Amino acid sequence: MKEHSLKYYLRGILLPLFLIALDQLTKRLAVRDLKGTGGRELIPGLLGFSYVENRGMSFGLLQGQRTLFLAVTVIICLFLLYVYLRIPEKKRFRPLSLCVLFIFSGAVGNFIDRAKQGYVVDFIELRFISFPVFNVADCYITWTAVFLAFLLMLHYKDEELKEIRLWPRSR
Q1: Whether 33 is catalytic
Q2: Which pTM was predicted?
Q3: Average pLDDT over residues 63-74
Q4: Which of 149, 8, 31 is nearest to 81 (CA)?
Q5: Helical H segments across the chain, by residue range
Q6: Is 122 considered catalytic here?
């Protein structure tokens, strides 16, 4: 595995710490200001805030599977750290490394909730469509996954992605 600069390692530590802290802060504010209320309208008919305790995953799937979620999240986070360390420290790969850090941060943000209280606090509600209530960590994961798909389809060539070398070469 190629060595990276101190800046690369610091980015890999400090950005997730900031993103996770932001996620946890917004969830605390949601608990403080929304729990036990009917919610709040931010943009009438479009966007509001409602307190929800999500014991499943997106769209309410797999309710009550806390141990499964915790185990899968640990595996995913370890894989993401491995990938981050394999990404070449070149300007061209910076968007890819940032995507990994954002997805990692979202996973850890929701992991903290599940580990601590057995559910994830959701509070952002799109009121113009029927869509599950979500949180900031979910935004990190979802928006970044969409951006990552575009990056992989339109920005990187197959030869470039081979530089990452996730798997050992076969002989």
Answers
A1: no
A2: 0.90
A3: 82
A4: 8
A5: 6-34, 66-86, 94-117, 136-150, 158-161
A6: yes
